[in-house]
Amino acid sequence: MNFDLTDDQEMMRDMFARFLDENSSMARVRAAAPGGFDPDLWRGLAEQGALSIRVPEDAGGLGLGLFDATLLMTEAGRTLVSGPLAEALVAARLLAQSGAQPDLLERVLAGDAVVTIALHDIATTPQQWVAGASIAEAVIARRGADVVLVTLAAADQKAERNLADTPIAHIDFTGREGAPLAIASADFDAGVEEWKLLISAGLAGLSKESLRLASAYAGERKQFGQFIGQFQGISHPLADLVCEADGGTMLVWKAILNIADGSKEAGAAVSIAAWWNAIAAARCVAQALHTFGGYGLTTEYDIHLFNLRAKAWPLVYGDPALLLDEAGRRLYAGETASLPPAGDCPIEFDLGEDAAQMTREIDAFFTSQVSDEERSHFHYSWEGFVPTVHKKLADAGLLFPGLPGDLRGKKLSHYAQMAAMDAFEHHGYNNPAANVTQMVALIIHRFGSDELKADVLPRLMQGEAICSLGYSEPGSGSDVFAAQCKATPEGKGWRIDGTKMFTSGANLSSYVLMLCRTNTEVAKHAGLTMFIVPLKAEGVTVQPVYTFQDERTNITFYDNVRIPDSWRLGEVDGGVKTMSASLELEHGGGFGKYMRKMLDAGVAACRQISRNGKPLIEQQQAQARLARTAAHLWLAELITFRAQWVIAEKKANLAYGPMAKMFSSEKFLTDARDLLDLTAPDSLSLRPGPTAELNLFYRHAQGATIYGGTSEVHRSMIAERNLGLPRTRA
């Protein structure tokens, strides 16, 4: 797995960034209006090699890949470059491919002439808006099965005021022959697909910069005596959107990798990247402008320039919703697409051979060792705990793949650990019982007494006992540091009194990991201590609490419960340090595997259900909504991959784990609702089959945004650690 650029790509990106910071400043962008073209900037880009980046070397270009071109476009988007760069890059490659008019190509690469493209077939759309046509010498266009170069007259090059002062023009191609180019129509179509990715990259760069400007302003502007970035009404929407902006870049990368690998998803990936970035850019700039308040509406502040370009750049193609329709047809109606040459792509989402081996080992276990009767009890919650399967996994050495080698006896790479978790989820048995017990085993190993290590730890490791967590309390919820359950020294041990809420699995577990208040005279986070408490101890009461997710949790009461001091974990009042040991098991996880199964159920339901005499899967609105769910799934997986990659490779981590959890849980919930709507009223049924599965996923998704840290907590972490906003929590 890799999310890093090559050294050469880093150097190239930095070169373009420095050049554009100086030559596409906001002052230069403003000066280029109303025509929207900066000829000096354009010639400078040519000198930097930007215009020749996709032209083969034997035609005088750099011969670089599509990925390299998107790096340029990301910087161009960040600086609102004044000129039809995405269109010119595609036109230059097509002109070079045709071998026609080498003199014109030479002037294009030198920045002395502009050639652009018409995005729609002029045989069926003879009149259309063309980006860059107000300053271009010629337009490359498709006319049915032919590709032609149409020279523009002075009368065509008529600058026209438009939404964002970009150099577009409305061209009537009726009756214009144009010079034939030796290019197949499929090659031209591939150029349009390339344009979609280039403009997507530009929009992603624009989106990130608009959020950066908004965050910087929110960190210096004060209202009511506080920086406005401390208000969650400001910081939380920005946290949502940085996930969408980052996701836009990753969708572009996925599409390029899919093209390079020949994936059947490649065409749909292009459409989804273009749709997503068009929508996300509009959302990002709108929220960024809102952050500036009334000042954002004035022309004195640069944010309005981002707002206008975010809409203008993609709309030259048409309604972005059509791109989602296109993705739906490519995913579910067999529509194919001509795709451009990708070139080298450094990004890789494969986990490697050791991870593949771990997956095969777990697959073999579930195939040979798990009976149908055992499998029938599987469930995403604690209710799916099957003691016999748990014990067999322990005997096979597969129960706790996330534990470090010094405890487990066999060191696994982080990627193999990830693959194991994914494989369990694939088989429906990534059970909370094992995950929580794994965490408790690690804490005992690190902080437990000799007695705990001798008596409790072996039982956990051998699959003979499981543990639950006693963190939350009725009055504190996610604020674990507000715990009031007391542990009072008594003789050579402790007396525990209090209540814990959402002690899931306490009815099944032998032990509970307790966070207790041991000191009320210090800061609340400093007066906590960790204990292991046997749930069969006298004074412990477990009372069920049922949720509408088909899941049981518990409220547990501790009345004069006595344990020896040897069952304490770590130092007295050192509970926070003890709890931090569990961070070694942080996987930056999300809900991608559940989302994938939910999408599969949605597709299956749409194949079964008919509306107006036609299967739902054949209807455009159904295809588009399934495609939107697929987009959210792909992004959830990509954001999670990045979170896991930075952990494995020890890279800078800008709250990537919280981003993965928050984004995936929120989209899991919205898509679960939408798929129920799409398949209604059949989706009301709990008959065995895909609609029953959609019901279950809808119930499951309700809690996804709550447990493991609420979305609100994660949004605050993202705002602070990724966007640099002031701390919003006490």
UniProtKB/TrEMBL annotation:
Domain Acyl-CoA dehydrogenase/oxidase N-terminal: 6-87, 354-464
The Acyl-CoA dehydrogenase/oxidase C-terminal domain, residue ranges: 197-330, 593-721
Pfam families: Acyl-CoA_dh_1, Acyl-CoA_dh_M, Acyl-CoA_dh_N
This protein's UniProt keywords: FAD, Flavoprotein
InterPro entries: Acyl-CoA_Oxase/DH_mid-dom, Acyl-CoA_Oxase/DH_mid-dom_sf, AcylCo_DH-like_C, AcylCo_DH/oxidase_C, AcylCoA_DH/ox_N, AcylCoA_DH/ox_N_sf, AcylCoA_DH/oxidase_NM_dom_sf
Protein name: Acyl-CoA dehydrogenase
Cofactor needs: FAD
Residue stretches making up the Acyl-CoA oxidase/dehydrogenase middle domain: 469-547
Superkingdom of origin organism: Bacteria
PANTHER family: ACYL-COA DEHYDROGENASE, ISOVALERYL-COA DEHYDROGENASE, MITOCHONDRIAL-RELATED
Family label: Belongs to the acyl-CoA dehydrogenase family.
